[in-house]
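Subject: for your reference before the review

Hello V.,

The reviewers asked for a structural picture of the protein, and I figured it would be easier to keep everything in one thread rather than splitting it across files. Below is the amino acid sequence we used in the manuscript, unchanged from the supplementary table.
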Amino acid sequence: MRIKLLLAFGMIVLLPVLIVTWFAIGQITSKIEDSLQNRVNESLDVALNAYTQFRDRALENAKILAELRTLQNYINHYDTEAMNLIQLVEIKRDQFDAITLEIADARGDILYRSYEAIPDRREYLYDSQDPTILRAIQYSEGISVRASEHGISVKGVVPVRTYADPFGVILLGYLLDDTFADQIHQITGTDVGIRIYLNSRVIAAAFAATAAGSREQILKEVKSQAARPEITQHVIKDGIRNWSYRETIRGNEYQTAFAPISGDNGEIIGMISVAIQRDNIDAIKRLSAIFLFVAAIVALILATLTAFFISREITVPLQRFVEGSRAISAGDFTQRINLHSRDEIGVLANTFNQMTQDLFDQREQLRKANQQLTEYAAQLEQTNLELTAAKQRIERWNEELEQTVKERTEQLEISNRELKKLHEMRTEFLNMATHELRTPITAIKGYSDFMLMGMMGEINDKQRKAISAIRESGERQLALINDMLDLAKIEAGRIQLEVEPTPLWVIAANNLHMIRPLAEEKGITLENQIPRDFPDVYVDKDKLTQVFTNLLSNAIKYTDDGGRVTITASVISEEHVQVSVSDTGVGIPPEDLPKVFEKFTKISNQPTRNEKGTGLGLPIVKLIVEAHGGEIWVESELNKGTSFSFTIPIFQYEAQLKEQAQRIERSLTST
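And here is what came back from the structure prediction:
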C-alpha cells in the first residue's frame, strides 16, 4: 500500500508541479512584457497630452493678447501709432516666451512681426495673405502646426475684434525643440527617452545617461539617426498610433513606441516617440525563471520525503482498523484498538473504541426518543392549527392594506398629473410673457436710441431728457425679464455648463475693465490682487463672467465716492479655490444677511434703499456657483464694507500627469 501511495503522489503532485511551474514562467514573462509595453504606451499618452497642452498654451496666450485693449487700439490705428505697436509686440513676445509674434490687419497683410534674434527663426514667419490668416479673419481661431527645414512650429491664431468684425489677427508661435522634449522627459520619468521627428529626421531629443554612455553621447547618436523605413511607412504614411518595436542605442536595447504629428492640412509631418530600456526587464525575466525552477525542485524533494513518512504513519494504523472492524462485524463488541498517537488517527481509534461501548446505550436512547417524538407530534399539530388561524388573519390584513395602498396610489397619480399640468402652464406662461414683454420693450429701447441719435428729427433738451428716462426704464424692464428667465431656467435644471481650463486672473481683469467706467464716475479704485500665475480654474467662462459682473456692479453701487473694490483669490484645497469680491461700502445690516440670496430682496438700510435693481442678481449668482459644485457666502459690517466669497473647482492637469507617471512607476516596480 505504501508503494501505491508514493506512485499516486508522483502522478498527482510531481507532474502538475512541473506543468504549473512551466506555465507560471510563461505567464510571468508575458506579464513583464505586457507591463513594459503598457508603460511605453502610457508614457506615449503622457507625451501626447503634453503636446496637446503645448498647443493649447499657444492658443490661450494668443487669445490673451487678442483681448488686450491697448493692442487692439494700436492695430486699429496702425498708421498713427505704428511705433507703439512695434514696441508692444517686442515686449509681449518676450513676456510670453515665444519664438515669433506676428500681427496682421483685416486684409491679411502683416503689420509687424517679432522673432528671436537667431536667423533660423525667420523661416517660421508667415507671409501676407496666408490662408491661416485669412481663415482667422473669418472668425476661425485655431492652432497652426507647420514644418520647415529646421523644425516644427506650433502657433495660436486668433482674430482681434471687440463687438464688430475682426480688424486684425494675432499669431503667437512656439517651437518643438529640446526644451519641449526635456519637459516631457521630466513628466514621464528620467528613464524614458523622448524624440521628436520631422518626417524621418530627429530634431529634438531627451535621454538619460546610461552605463553605455553619457547623456551627451546618447543624444548625439540619437540625433544622428534617421527613422527606419518601416517606421516611416507605419506612422507617417499610414498614421498608425502606438506603433512599437525594439531598437538598440549604444549597445542598450530599448522598447520604443511612436505617434504621428499632423500639420495644418491634415498631412502627417512628424512623430513623437518614447523609449524605455529593456535591460532591467530581461534581467527580471531570467531571475524569475531561475527562482521558479529552484523553488519547484526544492518543493518536490521536500514533498517526496514528507510523503514517505506520512504513508508509513497511515498504513500501520489502517491495518489495525481492518482487523477491529472484522471482529465487530462478527459480534465481538469488546474489541479495542490500542494506539498512543495524538493525531487524527489516534482520535479515530478512540472514537472507534467508544463506538462499541455506546451501541447498547444508544438502543435505549432510541426507544426514549421515539416516545418523545410522539408527544412532540401532538404539540406540533396544535401549533399548526394556531398558525393557520394567524395566517388567515394576516391575509385579511394584507387585503385591506393592498386596497388602502391602491387608493393612495390613485390619489398620488391624480396629484402628479395636476402638478405636471400646472408646471407646463407655468412654463408656457413664462415663455409667452417673456416673448410678449421683450419684443415691445426692445422696440421701445430701439426707437429711443434712434430719437436720441437724431435719426427721427431734431429734439430739444426737455424731450431728450424724457426719452432718456424712457430708454432707462426699458433697460431696467429688459434686465428684469432676462433675470427672471435666467432664474427660471436654472431652477428648472436646464442650465448647461461648458467647463474648460480658464485663467482666473484674465477673467477678473476683463470684468474689472468692463466695469471701470462706472467706478470712475464715483472715483472708486478697482484692484485685482489675483497673481498672474494663479492656477487655472475648471469653469464655464461665460457663467463665471456673469457672477463677477453681478458682484462688481453691486460693490460699486453700494460704495461711496472715493472707495475701493478688490478681487482676491486663494487655493483652499487640492480641488477648490476661494474668490472674494470686497468693497468699502455702506455694509449690510446683520438682520438682512440671511436674506441677501433670496429673490426680490431689497436691503433695508437707508443709504441703499433707493438704489435700482431687480433683486434677482444674487440668487442667480448663488445658483451658478452651486451648479459648479461650489458655495457662496457674505460677510459685512455696517459703514465698513462687504465681502462676497465663493468657491469654484481648480484645474489639476499637472497633478493628473504626475499621478499617472507615478502609477506607471509603481506598476513596473511591483511586477
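For the response letter, the relevant points are probably these. Residues 34 and 560 are 69 Å apart (CA to CA). The first helix runs from residue 2 to 66.

Happy to draft the paragraph if you're swamped.

O.
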